[in-house]
Design a protein that fits this description.
Ubiquitin-like (UB roll), alpha+beta, 6 strands
């Protein structure tokens, strides 16, 4: 590999400690947290967030958290109205005052 080139497999490979969705550092990072902001980027590159009570975070990791995807573009995408946010437990970041955030994948209801 030449200068300025990156091995994308190495850059995007999850670290071993982040592989267990319901255990390890991600769960312990939620101790004392009341709310988790589920963050995602839309097709225009704008950051969006949905607030979730921390006690529902584990279920969101395993099953996804439903949200109204049509609201992202002023209801222009009616066919994609119901979508799921699936948080990456390795991306949990504690903020101040009992709040954390996690980066999410946006999926259709069938998990794609």
């Amino acid at each position: 590999m030449g200068p300025g080139r990156h091995d994308l497999r190495r850059l995007h490979r999850p670290r071993r400690r982040d592989r267990h969705a319901l255990g390890g550092p991600a769960v312990s990072a939620l101790d004392g947290v009341s709310w988790v902001g589920l963050t995602f980027v839309d097709v225009f590159g704008l950051l969006n967030s949905v607030q979730l009570p921390a006690e529902r975070f584990d279920a969101a990791v395993s099953d996804g958290e439903p949200f109204d995807g049509s609201a992202l573009e002023g209801r222009a995408r009616y066919l994609e109205a119901d979508m799921l946010l699936r948080p990456d437990p390795g991306s949990v970041l504690r903020l101040d005052h009992g709040i954390a955030r996690a980066v999410c994948d946006v999926l259709t209801l069938d998990g794609k």
